[in-house]
Specification:
- By secondary structure, the protein is α/β, with parallel strands linked by helices.
- It has 11 helices and 14 strands.
- Helix 1 crosses helix 5 and helix 6 runs parallel beside helix 7.
- It is globular and about 55 Å long.
Length: 336
């Protein structure tokens, strides 16, 4: 994979070079010392992946991510030495299309290959993601709905660009929204709690991490909070599971949507937002096949038109809507 490094700290650049050297297939094609230089170099020689620092002179990583995704888009992973202190910047960069975030590998601290492993694993997953071309076959589940039930659920999946999209969508809903909401966002578990707090502060809604064994309930927005998949079980509660282990997306939107199609005992809406790849498309189609309303974000309002495009291509979405029109539609279908 052709990889670029954007970082103004020589020690961090060296740490990344050493980590990448453990995988001979990776080639560092250029190094930029600030975001402005990265924008220019990316236009001249667009890599497969950029490892982007956040805090830099001239132009920071958030603005550089925004510019690159608008002008010469490619996969971007935020790499920082202090991600907890920069949580808001991380979500802002992800809102512009960054795919993930990881700590800068440490030099001289224990086993160098072990220190490089988290970064190399994320790069491997992204390589699968950007190279994935064909949808996987999914079995059609047997519905377990009861027509007499009045329970309501909105299942939402998002990836690159998702934090900003979720902020817009949730701001459009009232605190007394009549349906339960479960969010599956591709984000590392160390950031999930911070993301829930950020969304709660931005939207005014009760956003928190989903807990093992609890049911979705109106008035709560539950965010998948681990690197395991989240599922709805037949008894109506939520559970985290490592299976299927071969899913490159963790947590997988497809896994959750499929469980909703199989086991939700009530009315539901599936919503697939901005993101790279095709996670969620097959699950959304299964929800549609069970008679649920399914909505995909349109191209113009998507930071990365990958997942919604995949859903549209297989006719998984009943409706394709601009981001700002999705919350009003949810309120039409699920009024007070």
């Amino acid at each position: 994979m052709k990889i670029a490094i954007v970082n103004d700290m020589p020690l961090a650049v060296e740490a990344l070079r050493r980590a990448l050297a453990f995988e001979p297939a990776h080639q560092v094609v250029w190094v930029a010392n600030n975001g402005a230089e990265a924008v220019r170099l990316c236009a001249e020689n667009t890599p497969d992946l950029i490892l982007m620092d956040l805090i830099m002179p001239v132009m920071d990583g958030v603005e550089a991510t925004r510019r690159i995704m608008a002008e010469t888009p490619c996969a971007i992973v935020i790499v920082t030495v202090d991600r907890q202190q920069n949580v808001h910047r991380v979500f802002e960069a992800m809102g512009h299309g960054a795919l993930d975030v990881v700590d800068t590998p440490a030099i001289g601290a224990g086993n160098a290959q072990e220190a490089a492993a988290p970064l190399l694993r994320k790069i491997l997953n992204i390589g699968w993601l950007i190279g994935e071309k064909t949808p996987r076959s999914r079995p059609v589940p047997t519905p377990h709905r009861s027509s007499a039930s009045c329970k309501r659920l909105v299942a939402i999946g998002s990836s690159a660009g998702g934090p900003a999209a979720l902020e817009v969508l949730l701001k459009g809903l009232p605190r007394n929204f009549s349906a339960a909401i479960v969010l599956v966002q591709h984000v590392d578990q160390v950031f999930a709690a911070g993301m829930a707090e950020w969304l709660a502060s931005a939207s005014g809604l009760d956003v928190r991490l989903a807990r093992e064994g609890e049911p979705p309930q109106a008035g709560a927005v539950l965010l998948a909070g681990t690197n395991h998949h989240i599922r709805l079980l037949k008894n109506g509660t939520l559970a985290y599971t490592a299976e299927p282990v071969n899913e490159i997306y963790r947590p997988s939107i497809d896994v959750f949507f499929e469980s909703v199609a199989s086991y939700w005992n009530g009315d539901a809406i599936g919503v697939l937002l901005t993101g790279m790849g095709r996670d969620g498309a097959q699950g959304l189609k299964l929800m549609r096949q069970q008679g649920y309303l399914t909505i995909a974000q349109d191209q113009q309002s998507s930071a990365v038109y990958g997942m919604p495009k995949a859903a549209a291509a297989i006719d998984a979405a009943v409706e394709i809507r601009p981001l700002e029109k999705i919350a009003p539609r949810l309120l039409e279908v699920f009024p007070k």
